[in-house]
Amino acid sequence: MSTYREIHGKAIKSLSTDLSATIDEGQIWYNTSSDTFKSIVATSAWSSAASLITARSESSGAGIQTAALCVGGYRSPGPGTVATTEEFNGSGWSSAEDLPAVKHKAATGGTQTAAFAAGGYPPNAGNAVTVEYDGTNWGSGGAMTSARRALRGAGTLPAGLAIGGYADPPGAYLTNVEEYNGTSWTAATVLPTATGNIGAAGTQTATVAFGGASPSATAVAYKYDGTNWTSTGSLNTARAQMGVGGIQTSAIAFGGGPPAITATELYDGSTWTTSPATMATARFNLGSAQATPSNTTALGFGGGPPDVSATEEWNTSASVITAAAWSAGTNFPTSSSAVAGVGPRDAAVGIGGYPAGSPPTGKSFEYNGVAWSAEATLNPNTGTAGVNSAAGTQTAIINSQSNPGPPYPYDAAGEYDGSSWSNAEDRPTANYSDASAGTQTAGLFFGGAASPSSLTNATLSYDGTNWTVEESMSTTRSIACGNGTSTAALAGGGLSVPSPATNTSNTEIYGGESWTAGGTMLSALREHRSGGPSTDCLEFGGRIQGAPPTTFRLNCSTYDGTAWATAPNLGTARGLSGSGNGPVGAIWGAAGYYPGSTPNRTNTTEHFNVETTAINVKTLTQS
User: Fold this and answer.
1) Which residues of 567-602 are buried (b: 16+ CB within 10 A; e: fewer)?
2) Same structural domain for residues 300 and 438?
3) How many domains does the chain have?
4) Are residues 302 and 357 part of one domain?
5) Global pTM?
6) Range of the domain at 283
7) Per-residue pLDDT tens for 156-212?
8) Is 612 inside a domain boundary?
9) Is residue 360 domain-shared with residue 211, that is, in the same domain?
10) Would you list the DSSP string of 200-243?
């Protein structure tokens, strides 16, 4: 009988602690401390990722899981075909240059920095137009020899493949296959069966094509060697309009329909196997990162019906990946809006706020990540703590206290030492709804309003004793988000015109002496909050431009110092809620407005948790 060493080339080890490296996958060891045999085992699973900026179906995809493209698509109801392009960096989606020709159900291939998109809608008959993307701009490519839609792309730029499709008129599925050299398309050997909405993975000279409609959904698969098509093992579930990835000898198919399904299948070069791991969201007409190097990683996004923005990642790994997400914390003591916050979630303070139908609380509450405790009431001489902002830590806070109703204005400020509030020097300018960054001895407050019709771009610094007027922002704004330090602060979004209410998507960065332009936010926002350094921050909640007064958002986004990208959504849509100024992995949000027939308040608290990985150590048992 063969031994474990003879089979695996390694002996069973005896260790007092568990192994912790992915290179030890498959190694069996005896843990002398727990008196158990253990091993590191690879697992496959789908996990949620940050959503697309724009929900859509019938988009096309290119690139790999950590550097993908979402190209075009269709939105129903309205506006129909879209030209928007988005880039995924492994954490979130950011805006890229629009397609020069709007289209959906096009053939795509290549990487995030070298991709093509050919054919697709409109017109209804399909088109022959090819466009190319260099990572920044779209440009014109060579026209296909046959106009069509609902086709599938594979390969790279400049070695692409366009497979199958549909033409209307004459209303027929097609066998057409074309090869692209980066300049022009040429006809290649046709598919054995006329098929539209087919799946495909691989290169121009080594592709596997599978499923699709001809006209009903099929499970048939074929391999292409650059010259000929040959039959190979069929899918286990007939499907069209699916997500794909991998190469000819290691491909993946997921989702598809109709009707929409969650099933995932893996191909080893001859046979398809259904995985027990399924997608969280059933969908077809989804986009995917088609250039993934094997079926151990994949990325699916969008699809429907109805149109969704959901993104999911597929990983086969010896590590267990827990995606970034918001989780529930302990409810804030009062259901209030306009709560200011400082500190990371295990050492936080929530200050003031407006309970529904009541005057401002003027109270502060400390949070240790598990429970809230009532602390000192703000000094009455320092304002009402209605719409206030704050900077500092749990034991050293400077609070810009304000009253958003007559009499205007308030110039009061207060300090907190961890047990009591005291008056601080009055601010040189009086306003409310400003944003803040920094600490008690190096604080920065910017923007705000002196009255509902008078917004400001003023900037004030505080050194622990005195206030100083600094250079103003270029954008007048109120109820914006702010985070960072007094020498590296971020101001994002906000109400820029009071009547009619107009939000801005402008971002500005303060370097200690002056403000400079930052990346444009994904949406024009107000009443949102943010935390973290100015080069690695998270903003969340708020109200988007044009939304009804009682509509607030779940959406969140991150900023890396250059560009904004999508992040996992909140569990509760809300506006103007408390948040801390710690690192992104310790951000919290509590209380705030939430959707209702009138401006209602919530007391929910949420924690943001960054993505984590852990080695998948399994205890071996005898069954």
Assistant:
1) bbbbebbbbbbbbbbbbbbbbbbbbbbbbeeeeebb
2) no
3) 3
4) no
5) 0.90
6) 57-316
7) 999 999 999 999 777 799 999 999 999 999 999 999 999 999 999 999 999 999 999
8) no
9) no
10) EEEETTEEEEE--BSSSB---EEEE-SS-EEEEPPPSS--BS-E
